[in-house]
Amino acid sequence: MKKKLTKTGNSQALIIPPAFLDLLKIDKDTELEVTVENGKIVAFPVKFDWNNVPEEDEELTPEEIAGMKQGEEDIKAGRVVDADEVWERLGL
Prior knowledge:
By secondary structure, the protein is of the alpha+beta class.
């Protein structure tokens, strides 16, 4: 997905699609860690507790949760994963 920045006051903002926010269970109140790694902007929830994701959650399958956990591990290890691989892991 290609996006352009949007002017917000004296800054520029990247608008995150609602589907991404829903998938990651984040909202405007979620604190994100934002870094630059290997020329890429990386953002993820600061304290996401994978043990708190209910198994019976109808929106996330166990496979999707496992894919998200793997993605978090990739980020922490500094591995770069492209968007197509993320979508494939999530089965989307």
